[in-house]
């Protein structure tokens, strides 16, 4: 009986710990432009190897990448060879496939290492829209001084001239909404920010001409 009670206690404690860890990774939805602006490093890369490092209680996964292009971070780290992430998805670790896809990867730099996770923006390159690819190349950085404010319930109003209201929150989350896929929040004349979508570089003399 004593042995059974001991097993039960250990089982319940393990179950509670597992539930706690599984629920530990919760990310606030973020527009791709904000993900770009808030990241130290933004690259397009192919994963060519991986290794489990014995860091922390669950380990850290080190991905070896072949960098195809860098969109942000030249001054910090001109070339990225390794990407680090938590080994456990419950701790926001990212699972990337080796020798299969090219990925867009955003991350932060700590002590000379690039870290990414589920709360960062990462995606298979062929799933990005043309607008998102153009945003990475030259649009998103034009709006890093703008503020994208999520709208969860109507009505929503901009409270300052540098705000764009992100209405994807009414029906979608994260990067899957229409604005996230096709719009960038660009600073226009006199400091105003507004949504922009188009094939040519934005005309910064026009205000609110292409709001969604």
What are its keywords?
globular; two-stranded parallel sheet; disordered C terminus; alpha+beta; 20% helix; 5-stranded mixed β-barrel; 212 residues; disordered N terminus; 4 helices; OB fold (Dihydrolipoamide Acetyltransferase, E2P); Tissue inhibitor of metalloproteinase-1. Chain B, domain 1; 2 domains
Q: What is the CATH first-level class name of the largest domain?
A: Mainly Beta
Span of the ends, CA to CA: 67 Å
Helix proportion: 10-25%
Total E-strand runs: 10
- Biggest sheet strand line-up: 1-2-3-5-4
Q: SSE string, helix = H, strand = E?
A: HHEEEEEEHEEHEE
Give the overall form: globular
**Number of helical elements:** 4
**Mean pLDDT over the full residue set:** 82
CATH architecture annotation name of the largest domain: Beta Barrel
Could you say how many structural domains there are in total?
A: 2
CATH T-level topology of the largest domain: OB fold (Dihydrolipoamide Acetyltransferase, E2P)
Structural class: alpha+beta
Strand content: 25-35%
Largest sheet, if any? Answer: 5 strands, mixed, barrel
What radius of gyration results from the CA coordinates?
21 Å
Query: Are there runs of 5+ residues with pLDDT below 50, and where?
Result: 1-22, 200-212
Disulfide bonds: 25-92, 27-119, 37-144, 146-193, 151-156, 164-185
GO molecular function: metal ion binding; metalloendopeptidase inhibitor activity; protease binding
Pfam families: TIMP
GO biological process, one term: response to hormone
What does this structure look like?
The chain has two domains: 32-126, OB fold (Dihydrolipoamide Acetyltransferase, E2P); 129-196, Tissue inhibitor of metalloproteinase-1. Chain B, domain 1, CATH 3.90.370. The protein is globular, with a radius of gyration of 21 Å. A hairpin with a 5-residue loop joins strand 9 (184-187) and strand 10 (193-196). The longest helix has 21 residues, at 2-22. Residues 1-22 and 200-212 have low confidence and may be disordered. It is built from four helices and ten strands; from the N terminus they run H-H-E-E-E-E-E-E-H-E-E-H-E-E. With 212 residues, the protein is α+β, with helices and mostly antiparallel strands.
């Amino acid at each position: 009986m004593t042995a059974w009670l001991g097993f039960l206690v250990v089982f319940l404690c393990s179950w509670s710990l597992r539930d706690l860890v599984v629920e530990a990774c919760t990310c606030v939805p973020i527009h791709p432009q904000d993900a770009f602006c808030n990241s130290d490093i933004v690259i397009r890369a192919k994963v060519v190897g991986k290794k489990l490092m014995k860091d922390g209680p669950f380990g850290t996964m080190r991905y070896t990448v072949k960098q195809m292009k860098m969109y942000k971070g030249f001054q910090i780290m001109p070339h990225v060879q390794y990407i680090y992430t938590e080994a456990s998805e419950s701790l926001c670790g990212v699972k990337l496939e080796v020798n299969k896809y090219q990925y867009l990867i955003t991350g932060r730099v700590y002590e000379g290492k690039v870290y990414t996770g589920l709360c960062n923006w990462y995606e298979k390159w062929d799933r990005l829209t043309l607008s998102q690819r153009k945003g990475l190349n030259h649009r998103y950085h034009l709006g890093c001084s703008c503020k994208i404010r999520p709208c969860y319930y109507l009505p929503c109003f901009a409270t300052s001239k540098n705000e764009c209201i992100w209405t994807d929150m009414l029906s979608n989350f994260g990067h899957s909404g229409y604005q996230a896929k096709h719009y960038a929040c660009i600073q226009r004349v006199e400091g105003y920010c507004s949504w922009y979508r188009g094939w040519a570089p934005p005309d910064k003399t026009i205000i609110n001409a292409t709001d969604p």
